[in-house]
Amino acid sequence: MPERYRKLARDNTALVIVDCQEKLVRAMCEKEALVMNLRRLLLGARVFRLPVIATEQNPAGLGPTIGEVSELWTAVQPVPKFSFSCCREEKFLAEMERHRPANVLLAGIEAHICVYQTAIDLLDKDIAVHVIADSVSARTLENKQAALKKK
Question: Which of 38, 81, 94, 116 has the fewest Cβ atoms within 10 angstroms?
Fold first, then answer.
């Protein structure tokens, strides 16, 4: 496991946005706040010039990342995924290798499934994970809260 907390800096941090696709987002609790906070997070990443890595769960079935989010990036090509954890996808791992972050700011959906599984796998790779609580969601508030309570 990595050190519990590491100092965030633009040369050691990446933003990972998990599965923020239209068909999924519209089923989330507090979806308007989620989208607004994801946009703020992306604008902050732009200011600090942080690399952004995005994923899309089964994009043929669930569609692309919602426009309100994807319009804020230019050089990001979302990684298609078919597993709960982003770390089970070779293209995601290649992006992580390219950027080599010691820290990941983690956002997206669903908090208790894909976000959580990704966090666990990143920790196993000795990467410090900072889940952005107001930028994750689930279909129910209880599932979101349960995910955020897990250590």
Answer: 94
Residue 2 is assigned to a structural domain of this protein: no
| Residue 5 within a domain | no
In-domain check, residue 28: yes
Residue pointed to by tokens 């293209």: 91
Structural domains in the chain (count) = 1
* CA distance linking residue 25 with residue 63, whole number of Å: 11
Across the beta sheet with 13-18, the strand order is 79-81, 52-57, 13-18, 103-109, 128-137
Beta bridge partners of 107: 17
* Spatial contact of 88 and 122, defined as CB atoms under 8 Å apart: no
Q: pLDDT tens for residues 105-146?
A: 999 999 899 999 999 999 999 999 999 999 999 898 888 888
**Residue 136 CB neighbours (<10 A):** 26
d(CA 34, CA 107): 10
Q: What is the CATH number of the domain that holds 80?
A: 3.40.50.850
Q: Which two tokens stand for residue 10?
A: 């633009």
Output the DSSP codes for 46-68.
HHTT--EEEEEESHHHH-SBPHH
CB-CB contact of 129 with 106 (8 Å):
yes
- In this structure, is residue 1 part of a structural domain? no
